[in-house]
Amino acid sequence: MTRRHHRLHAFARRLAAAGLSFALLSSCTAEGEGPGAAPSPEPPSTPTSEVQEEDRTGPSEEAGDEQPETYPPEPKGPRIRPVPPPQWQAMQSAGMVRPECPINRRSQLRRVDLDYVDFRGELRRGHLIVNADTAASIARAFTRLVEARFPIRRMRGVERYDGDTLRSLQADNTSAYNCRRADQINAPFGASPHANGRAVDINPRENPWKDLRCHCWSPSARNAARTPGPGKVRKGGIVWRAFIEEGWVWQNIDVPDYMHFDTGYPSRPYRRPPRT
After folding, report:
1. pLDDT tens digits, 222-241
2. Domain coordinates of the chain in residue numbers?
3. Residues 6+ apart with CB under 8 A from 19
């Protein structure tokens, strides 16, 4: 072996040793304290028919809230938990929680982590922020959608869009809670299903609403017709069945709003319908 080969071989050994040391250091770093932090394992999912709420919130729950949605190797099932404190603070900073809003305490809301299938057919993981009384119903409904492989573009809290409803709609973001600011599309705060965490907007681009302020479709008129298409909500379809059978309401107003399901207007607590 030449002197040059000896040097290369020694350098390779040093790199390998350095890599091993970094891996060992990373495995000992507390989660959320550095780039090498190892995520804590998800608890086993609970069957959809008996979704249970998790009462603890700690570092493992908070880690990853600022990260993009992930591609899990296999379905994890719905997970209901308190809104992590950093996310609650971000919602406050975005103006989604204010003194005049009906939701003023973190304990009134839940974060529901959900599997979904994107428009490329790949399994992804997102979440919705909802009223505590709707969390189990949301978990059941969206479990039916992922099982049917109904495509969803993305699913994240509106604080990621600085609380701006229009930006969230334009991003085709499926979302739920938002006490919208006065300059946004709105209903009176106390009556608003979104401000009470009892409404969900699904695939806004594929399911637009008619904005009577401009007599235009928002976020786009491209999919205003209720013709068949990926990600569209249609009467009798899988999304319609999943929510109507849970007792939610679709299109009970004069203004077309195809993305929107709620538990009633003015907002009222969720009551699961009796099983038939």
Report:
1. 999 999 999 999 999 999 99
2. 65-262
3. none
